[in-house]
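testing teh design pipeline on a random one, pls ignore if ur not involved
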């Protein structure tokens, strides 16, 4: 079985932002933007026609993001992610019929029930030959539930 894993430090070091950023670097995986905010992931050359169930399942933690009634999978932003695991298929025994080609698991950081912590990421840039500015604000807060 072929497995590719990216940990949080690698995601941060490579400045990976969304699904296509990391899947384009995984051998044997192709990703194409289908509709705004949605992508079709192809592993092992197994693909489907438009509006058919995808052959690659996508998970956020233990929650499936692949919808059999919609083309492709949602494009997730990589915020507060512990690791990403790409499992080449077939993965039907563990992840169901939508994972014939493989499975992509986005595993978020587990909450810390005892500590308060936060993180903020700010970015600003300008595009050449444009009057518009580019800015980015991403924040994460962990609130303790146990005192």
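output:
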């Amino acid at each position: 079985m072929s497995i590719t894993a990216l940990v949080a430090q690698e995601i941060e070091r490579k400045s990976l932002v969304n699904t296509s950023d990391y899947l384009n670097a995984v051998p044997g995986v192709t990703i194409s933007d289908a509709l705004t905010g949605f992508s079709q992931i192809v592993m092992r050359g197994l693909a489907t026609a438009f509006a058919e169930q995808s052959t690659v399942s996508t998970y956020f933690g233990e929650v499936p993001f692949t919808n059999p009634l919609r083309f492709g999978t949602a494009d997730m932003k990589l915020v507060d992610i512990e690791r990403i695991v790409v499992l080449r298929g077939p993965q039907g025994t563990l992840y169901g019929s939508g994972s014939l080609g493989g499975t992509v698991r986005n595993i978020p950081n587990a909450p810390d029930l005892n500590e308060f912590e936060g993180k903020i990421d700010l970015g600003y840039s300008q595009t050449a030959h444009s009057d518009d500015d580019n800015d980015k604000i991403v924040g994460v807060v962990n609130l303790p539930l146990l005192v």
